[in-house]
Structures are given as C-alpha cells and as structure tokens.
Description:
Largest sheet: 2 strands, antiparallel
Distance between the termini: 33 Å
Number of strands: 2
Number of domains: 1
Strand content: 5-15%
Radius of gyration: 14 Å
Shape: elongated
Low-confidence stretches: 1-7, 9-16
Amino acid sequence: MAKAICPAASQGIHAVDVGAYGKAHPGSSQFKLAIHRCAEWFGGRPEQYRPLVHAMVSLIHGHAMLKISGYEPWTTVEESQAALDKALDILAANQDKFRN
Length: 100
C-alpha cells in the first residue's frame, strides 16, 4: 500500500493509506485527499486548507529533491528527515494561521 505524509502529524497520525483512497476515488489526487483529511481532523471546509497543504507539499517536495540529487552536504539523511518531521509538526500545530 502506498503511504503519504499526513497533515495531522502533530496529532500522532503519521501516515494515511492513499492506495485505498485512490481505488475508491479514481482520478482524485493525493493533494485533494490531504485537503479533505485536514478538514476531517481540524474541522472546517476542505478548501480552507489549500494554503496549509501547499506549504506541506512544498516542503516534502524540496526534501525529496535534495535526497534524490544527493546534495545534502551539511547534514545526514536522518538529520534532514528529522528536520522535515519537525517542520511538518509545526505547520500542523499552526494550521489555524493558514486557513483562508
């Protein structure tokens, strides 16, 4: 099963099963899933969470690109992953500041 970082990481939920969601909702993106999960976990309407999920996806994408390129001379992979996890936790803890 495919796993993705969950926007509610600070609540102890670190992964969400996107494989089952993809089968149940063909053509739907993981970005949409994350937006809907934010609304479920934090309350409110899914469209309110686009800025938060965009920030999280941007961090995750940048982290992945650095790992793929091998250009992380200032840190180990473990330190880099820990920093990403902390940043995602901070974003999730401050989700109310991202709502539009």
